[in-house]
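Worked example

This section walks through a single chain of length 107. The input is the sequence exactly as stored; nothing has been trimmed or padded.
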Amino acid sequence: MASELENSIRSAAAKVAAYVADAAVMEVTTSYVVVGPVASAETPRPAAKTIIRLDGDCEATVPMREGPGGMLEVDSGLFEIHQANVATATEYRARVLGALIGLLQRR
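Given that input, the structure is written out below as tokens.
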């Protein structure tokens, strides 16, 4: 019986360790597909991407389009969707890490 408990604890600890290692980098990619009257099996293409590292470093790729006179401008609609995706992912990660810390503090 004790060995089953030890195995369960080891398994849970390994899963927590893997999650913590994975939590070092959070990547959010917002993709798009072109829709129209003819259905297509088009592969989604990335429109925006944000990478946030545990040490606070951040990398962002934003959707741009060519505007009047060849000037580049941010595609604000896609960028707003992406910002909402990043905020949701950040909030979720904070809740999960908070729950893990709470579990560790009880021990």
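What to look for: The longest helix spans residues 76-106.
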